[in-house]
Fold these 2 entries.
Entry 1:
Amino acid sequence: MLEALLAGFEAALRVDTFIWVSAGLLLGMLMGAMPGFTTTMGMSVLMPIAFLVGDPLIGIPFLIGVYKGGIYGGSVPAILISMPGTAASVVTVMDGHELTKKGQPRKALDMGLAASVISDFISDFLTLILIIPVAAIVLGFGPPEIAAIMFMSLVIVSVTATGPVLKGLLMLGFGFWLSFVGADPFSAMERYTFGTTELYDGFHLIPMLIGLFALPEIFNAVRSGDRKRGRVASLVGDRLSWKELKASMRTILRSTGIGTAIGLVPGLGQTVAAMMGYIAAKNASKHPETFGKGEIDGVAAAEAANNAVNGPTMVPLLTLGIPGDNVTALLLGAFMMQGLRPGPTLFETSGATVFAILIVMLFANVIFWFIGYYTIPLFSRVVTIKKSLLIPITIMLAFTGTYLARSNPFDLVTLVGFGIIGLAARKAAFDVMPMVMGFILGRELEYSFGQTLSLAGDSLLRFAFTERLGMTAIVIATPILGTLIGLRMNRLRKQDLVRGG
Amino acid sequence: MFRKADFRLVAGILLLAVVALALGQWLIAEPPINLSDDISPLNPRLFPSLVLVGIVVVAGFFIANRIRGVEDFEGELEPALAGDDGGGTKRLLGFLVLVVMCALVINTLGFLTTMFVLMLGTSLLVGNDSIAQIVAFSAGLPFVIYVLVTHVLRTSLPELDAIEAVLVPFLGTLPSF
């Protein structure tokens, strides 16, 4: 494992990789800064670029740049016009926009950037440390354990998805079923192809991801039309001083710890982290009454916590193949399109590449600081760009990216089809993430299960209870774990709704 | 509205699952000869059938809960979908027709023409009222993307021979990467 880490360090030191990370950061900030344009949408539209460049040490860091930049970029409209660019910036509005009203938007944006970069750097470093022992443990897993872990991942993702557990399970089943379209992995017999050659290889992942994540946003934007936005406060006021940053360091570190812990648990995500970081900062403050009235520590707490989630989500993603949220589900797809299958075997087959990606992710924070510092004035202007200009560009990028995946016009039809499914799912408050996971892991699970059956020979039960106790333990524990988490999640959701009125 | 939307979606998935289960033997081909367990340890129909049964059971539970009036809590409604003037739905339907048409004709009309039509139509539907801006963006941006994809990424895009013939002299003047 340490050899892979050292090889990864060497592989990471490439100029072109850092150029692409910078491009990703800039595009991510741009997407995040536009109200109504989410990080997920930006990543799904830009994913074909990562696929086309073909090199995982360029494509994946590019998307990670979009991810990091997008989460920070969301704080720009949150602070300037009280409209969060991404869900993760909801909490930043509370004090960020109050600071703007007090004539200090520049200070709030500087603090947002500093807190984001510091927490991102620390949490990425912790990710690198944490991933080594976890990867070492899962390295000994074979097809039976892999199949069991995939089963567990799918159940956990379904029960932690937004909305009731039944909805999550239904979407999981639907995605799972769609993954069977095409040739059977063992006998290559056709399934649900209706005799067409277009469906023989199944649905491609790119139209599915763009269709489910980006198209519903575009449909919504078309439906709501162009709305006039209020004037944006010019970037007046003092910049953040070193003394002020030092005074907020305790808050930033606390929020980093909270965000890191939350990032390790699939399904919670940036918004929960930002809320918890903010509440913890308020409780620890000597002046809690100033929170919500333009307290700079409030901005630091929220932004540090939401950015600290980014790195640790990679631990369950890379070692077990479990994505923590929509963005990491997209990253899972990006890894797979580059020929890297997140899960127990990833570090065995591509350890150096994965460590290189993690090291690039760590160093990207330095670039993040410089780019953010010098481009804040530019991104503060971005929030005023008209939707009627952006939507046509986005739909063109979605079409082009989908077509480029395999130069098949049929994929454009499936793109629109998945877009309609995504829109229907949104309208009915169904989370599409379990569907994506079911689609990505469905065939893999079937294949691993088939391999397990081959290994087991005549008696699967004897094999399970004598030779593969690890697999058996995971399979038995999964429904229990799923039920417990599901009940807890349902209770939390109900409480939230009651509280939310 | 919300309750109907999720009921309709679940009913749609349930119907799809029932049809796929019923027609399973026609929709999934079986190997013409018996393959040994080492080559094909799983029947190609096994996993799809298990998943479809699972979908039917879960969807059945969901619908039964709704019919019995078991008060499941409502999830969050998308703010953009919460309220709608009649114009919004018309715009959306118009946009759907536009994207489906563009998806179907891209190989016939070529990339540049299709993207021009797509961007022009979308701009008008979203409410951009500056014709000069619409035309400039709809013609210029697809061209930039075309050059980037074909010349920098060296990947082909569908294009009419006539348009390609016009573009070749220009593309030849660009530095190669």
Entry 2:
Amino acid sequence: MSELELFGVAVTLLTLFAGFGVLIGLLFGFFGMGGSFLVTPALMVMGYDTDVAVASGLAFVFGTSVIATLKHRDLGQVDYKLGVLMIAGTTAGIEVGKLGLHWLQSIGQADLVVSIAYVGLLGGIGAFITYTAVRGDGGGGIDHDVADDAEVDAEDIPDVAKKIQSYRVPPMMSLKGGITVSLWMILAVAFATGLLSGLLGVGGGFIRMPALFYLVGVPVPVAVGTDLFEIVFSGGIGSFLYAMDGAVNLAIVVPLLAGSAFGARLGAAATALVEEDEIKVYFGVMLLLGAVAVAIRKVGGVIEMPVLDAVALVIIVGAALLVSGAVVVSSVRELRTDSSSSPQTAD
Amino acid sequence: MFGTEIAGGPAEAAVIIGVVLVEALVLYVGYGILEALVGPAIRRALGGE
């Protein structure tokens, strides 16, 4: 018996992608980052070729970032001037990073170095977020519900960013949040983050967003909005280049994007209900588990045990389900608490 | 529509990126309207009112 199809694609597969999209979108909408790294590994484990998995993942990131940038633009959280400077610096950094990657490939060390750096970075950021969430000082760098913070308080600026802002090499740039930074410092930070993402072969949003906050010192919502603006361009150009080779599979991207845009709405609505520190620790743990899963997948590749790919996928999807489930449960609990504690009115 | 994944070249690539861009814009507007229309009712239902 043949399966029900839509546009020549099995409906069950479309539903699976849409459902997976909701999960990713929920995490992305709530935390402002962290969903996209699930897509490419999941597609590879499902049996898609690496170039199709990477290209379709990139096209999905492009679509998601368009939607998220529009939302952040409505809230006044995109600094276009900073975005353009970041694009310029990052592009140069990526090119140099790629040269470094080619050199590592030529001496046969690329896979080892990239894997260790990727796992270390993902695990490091995960550990940092978990640590700050457990400590309860809110410094995990993923707050995003402070749209009205037009001016940033001096004590909220990280020390490293204060140091970078103190180098007053002209021309100076005024950025959203009322801060002033040397053009050269912005380009240097952009170059460094580009270098890292070129070397690791990743989009680099999870590197750039913390860098904008911790190194340049812009408020977190503006860091998220500006980073998304940059991803529109990097994701768009990247997926265009892959699409020229016919690697972008719209049967994956279209349902994934439809689901994720819906999930992102739910996630964004949940931010107004749930105390973020309550969930942040889960998010940190999810990144840590992501690092473990990537490590397991790499080991599986080295010792030629494909079953470890499936183990890695179960860890990643399980962790994502756990965290998004926690967001939903906490939101519903808050809604019920609110409605039972608020006085009944005539309307 | 989904058959374009086997194509290649700049024109096909532009069509694919265009499809993703248009879908993103439609979803942004569409879900925005949907949220405004049914969001409060879902909130009330989940809140047990």
